Amino acid sequence: MREGPSNATIDWNPLGEVYYRKVEVYSMLWKDRVDLNKYVAAGGTYGGPIALVKKDAASGATNQKPVIYIFTAAGQEQAAFKWDGGKLIQMGWSSSEELICVSEDGAVFMYDMFGSYIKQFSFGNEVQRSYVLRAEVFASHFGTGVCVLSGDYQFFVINNVNEC
């Protein structure tokens, strides 16, 4: 029996005026180990590495130092290290695949994709006194930057982390 045209596109989904279909290329190697509902994730651009930290540990809900895990885009663990900074506010990846971690006191730590420490810098005493409420790692034509919102509702921006 011959299939009709309606069966040929049964797995395609509308997105505005175009259609797409989702094709699984491979399954993540962590599939039985990692429940993403329990983690905060930061994915690198263009299929780069993925950093994970348990939500309760990152929020300071436990007394234990959180462990940051770094995986490949396929879910293979590359590294794991204990976070020694203060309360972890934000993680993100630079354009050169360096993990950027922002702590509540305004300290910024940088690690390579294998979890090796690169450097640390700070937003200064004003941010340290009022703490960081929110932080974002972003890309711009200057390089990879970090923006924080302090506890007294002021924004502080570093446009290029490589110049710190």
Automatic annotation (TrEMBL):
Residues 9-163 form the Vps16 N-terminal domain. Transmembrane segments: none annotated. One of its GO terms (biological process) is vacuole fusion, non-autophagic. GO terms for cellular component: endosome; HOPS complex; lysosomal membrane. GO terms for molecular function: actin binding. PANTHER family: VACUOLAR PROTEIN SORTING VPS16, VACUOLAR PROTEIN SORTING-ASSOCIATED PROTEIN 16 HOMOLOG. This is Vps16 N-terminal domain-containing protein. It comes from Clytia hemisphaerica.
